[in-house]
Every structure is written in C-alpha cells, then in structure tokens.
Specification:
Length: 165
Amino acid sequence: MPASSAAARRNSTTALRFGQSSFMAVLAALILFGGVWGSWGTAQHVMLERGRVQGSLKVVSCAGEVCAGPFTRSASAGPGGPDSAVIARSVAVRAGRSYDVVLKPGTREAVRAGTAGVLYAWVPLGGALLLASVVVAGGMRLRRAGWLLGLAGGALLTSAFFAVR
C-alpha cells in the first residue's frame, strides 16, 4: 500500500505543477497580448504611414493633457492637412520644439513619427515584457526565458527613453 500512495501523491503533484504552469502560461500570454493591444493604437499610425498626412508640428503651448501648435505638411506626404494639430502631452513633448509627426486619419491628433515615434509607441509592450518575465521565470520556472523577456523589455524601454530625448 505505501507504494501506491506514493504514486498517487506523485501523480497529484505532477497534475498541480502542470496546472500551475498552464495557468502562468495563459497569464503571461494575456499580459503580452495586453501590451501589444495597448501599443498598437499608436503604433499603427507611425508604422503604416503610407497615405497618412505627415509633417512637422511646432509645439507652442501645452494645457492639460495636450500640446498644440502649427502643423506644416510635408511636400511628399499624403493628402492636405490642417493648419494646426495637437499631440498628447508627455515627457517626450516639450514646448518650443518641433517634431516630425503623422496625423491620425480624420483628426488633428498627431503622433510622433520616425524611429523615436515607433519606439515610443511600443513602450506599453516593453512594460508588458518586463511583467511577463516575472511570471515566466517565477510561475513557470523558466528562468532563461524570463531573462530573455526581461532583457527585451528593458532594451525596448531604454532605447525608447534615449530616442525621445
């Protein structure tokens, strides 16, 4: 009898570990999906620029959560745009500076263009990678995969920080 109870204990422990790993894998996947979802709202305008209004925005004033200024359309960029535009106020936007931007279709809302814009748009994914690394390393006991996710997230956040300066 002791041999069968040891086997039963081993089977239940294996089932619990499998359940824990499965739950953590689903949780990590949801975290990463949320990071991509949060980033894509801005990243699509920056990465898929063809046919969108592009130009430069000189930030004149900031009030509340937006900064505004005159918009100058690029000569080679899509259809005509408005005379002024607004951009979300963040650490990456300062009054008195000009930024290359892409306008969201049908609005005056601008998002940063170029490498800085792409990296800044994917910042939520960088945070999700860092959070998922803890779940993968701790919950799934996959330390190397956790380190890779964490390093990828850290690299993305660091490069975005230096690109938007």
